[in-house]
Amino acid sequence: MNLTAEIAGVTFPTCIMNASGARCVTAEELEVIGKSRAGAIVTKSMTLNARDGNPTPRYVTFPRGSINSMGLPNLGYQTYVDLIPHLKEFKKPIIASIAGFSPDEFIDIATAIDAAKPDLLEINLSCPNIEGHPQIAYDFKAVEQLITKIRNVVSRPMGTKLPPYFDPVHHDHIAKILERCGIDFISVINSIGNGLVINPETDAVIIKPKGGFGGLGGAIIKPVALANVRAFALRLQGRIPVIGVGGIETGQDIYEHLLAGASAVQIGTAFVEEGPQIFGRLEQELTTIVARKGLRSTAEAVGRLTEL
Ligand code: RRO
Fold first, then answer.
1. Which of 8, 112, 263, 283 makes a 20 to 30 Å CA pair with 14?
2. What is the pLDDT of residues 126-138, one digit of tens each?
3. Which of 46, 52, 59, 72 to mutate to test the pocket of ligand 1 (most atoms within 8 A of CB)?
4. Closest Cα to atom 8, ligand 1: which residue?
5. Stretch (H or E) spanning 212
6. Are 226 and 256 in contact (CB under 8 A)?
7. What's the whole-model pTM score?
8. Complete domains list, the chain, with CATH
């Protein structure tokens, strides 16, 4: 079975990789991904300076989901710049995720990381967990201004990590902006921002930052993820490939993302919970399903969803 994917001219040995944020902060964690069957190494979103992140508990699972408010813990972009040559030894694409607290920070980080030649850059416009810093992706004017500036300093393929949108008008609007700005791929969705999970035994929230509000992930978010993959795939028609993220625990979930129009997928909560062996398991499960459908490659499944 051919499980490869091609995104922005880069070939991925399989279409299954980690999502930014999941076990990908330290050199050791990134090496584990490199040695695993993951089809790429995706870094944690990197900021100008190293960050410890928010106070704990800041990531908790509950039945069929997770809530996090990590607060961008990462080693600072320079450490990742220095690490990229080593990570290239694993012979799979490297996606460097970047996040800034101002346009100038985004530009400084993008300039430096671009020079280190990761295979692709993923611009995170959708972190929900920093107090005083709203998710940029919900401010369409700010998105266009920021992406235009970053595009000017980046020569590598460059995509954006988007949050879920909940109205077709918003999908229309953001898709047009991404096309105008020369974006090479999108990853959808980031966690569903600012959910609240309550423990009825303790009458308390389950994570500490932001009064218990945090980004939702895991199986419960799959329908929202699929809707966003589908909405963007229909609008972008392959001109900008879509990486599907959200709610993937099984090969069946990946198959659904492919049908909706994802060319590749990223695994967040399930990778955190299961560890690196998840990539081999998902590969096997996906292979079985795609073969049963009579297809020779996962690429053949992309966008085949039918409507009633
Ligand atoms: O670090 C985080 O709190 C975080 C980030 Br940057 C993000 O993009 N998405 C998320 O769920 N958590």
1. 112
2. 999 998 999 999 9
3. 72
4. 127
5. none
6. yes
7. 0.98
8. 5-53+71-191+218-301 (3.20.20.70)
